Amino acid sequence: QVQLMESGGGSVQAGGSLRLSCAVSAFNVRIYYMTWFRQGPGKQREVVASIYHDINGDGSAFYADSVKGRFTISEDNAKNTMYLQMNSLKPDDTAMYYCAASTNNGGRLLLDEAQYNYWGQGVQVTVSS
Q1: What is the full DSSP assignment across 102-119?
Q2: Rounded Cα–Cα distance for residues 44 and 55 (Å)
Q3: What is the Cα–Cα distance from 30 to 51, expressed in whole angstroms?
Q4: Tell me: the pLDDT tens digits for 93-119?
Q5: What sign has the CA pseudo-torsion 95, 116, 77, 75?
């Protein structure tokens, strides 16, 4: 059983920063992927950033091209929390942001939202010009 609780988000001017948090509570499961999705108005849900941990515990990060160099995904294992640091925000970053976890293991990258077992409720990020 896994529970995800997002926090952070809000409204910020273009060029500003926000940090999203995802508190993870997992019981007797192995999570391979921790991923941030987002969905803007009238747009498809898309992967923003993701962390994959293989069976050896080695991790790798993925970023969508649109956020490379601006967003950073990280984990604090002591706090059981995943973060998304968002810098140099743009109006196009406006969206609902979702934390998701998957117990599947398909390799370095898992982009299919259907393969994610657990989801947070989402937090709104609004970037104004």
Answers
A1: E----SS----GGG--EE
A2: 31
A3: 14
A4: 999 999 999 999 888 899 999 999 999
A5: negative
